[in-house]
Amino acid sequence: MAAQAVEVQQPQAMSPVHRSVAAANDMLSQALSSGAGMDVIEKLMELRDRQEATMARRAFDEALAAAKAEMPVITKNRTVDFTSTRGRTNYAHEDLGEIARTVDPILGKFGLSYRFRVKTEQGQVSVTCIVAHREGHFEETTLSAGHDQSGNKNSIQAVGSTITYLQRYTLKAALGLAASSDDDGRTHGRTAEDDALITAEQRNTLLKMIEATETDIARFCAYMKVESVPDIKLSEYGRAVAMLEKKKEQKNV
């Protein structure tokens, strides 16, 4: 008979974090077997939980980085164009459905998912986007805004419009998404630096300042003439910070 080749599976090397979790579990098992006191058991359980949390956080970061590397620029599939007493408003944006169609398959591929938590009180709507990984780690991004009173909306429609608006913003902020720009409207002679957007770190700084100053996100974006915070140009970052710093000073007076 012809000899058959046998493929030998080599065990994968464990990362330092996985080794720490395994060691903590071994110590906990030994302590339970030897009848150790509750104080020892509790400390070992806390150690194990910390190691597992570290491992889950690392898995989350790696998965999110891999997912973002595969995400294309989101297409702006909706146009807003109306005229009010304050003049004409005209811009393109991507709706929540377009964002979901783009990101859901990629997030699922890497074990990531998202959901929203909504809170309404005293004329304000707060939406929290929770991005979670299958290993258990999750992170939250929260934004707030007043009810959308534009047009002839009734009270329910005003709340619903704001919720949808904030769901788009929080999801884009949580994932660091960028929407496609309007190439037809680009001015000749512009450079790449002119169109560069703020970094993820700068975006997070602005979001923290917005929350700390209780700034209405919709009005802030209107002031900056953008659809969402991640869409702010790098050249406009200083102006955005200055405006929020001024509001912070006024609030503390």
From TrEMBL:
It comes from Brucella pituitosa. Pfam families: ERF. The lineage of its organism: Bacteria, Pseudomonadati, Pseudomonadota, Alphaproteobacteria, Hyphomicrobiales. It comes from the Bacteria. This is ERF family protein. InterPro entries: ERF_bacteria_virus.
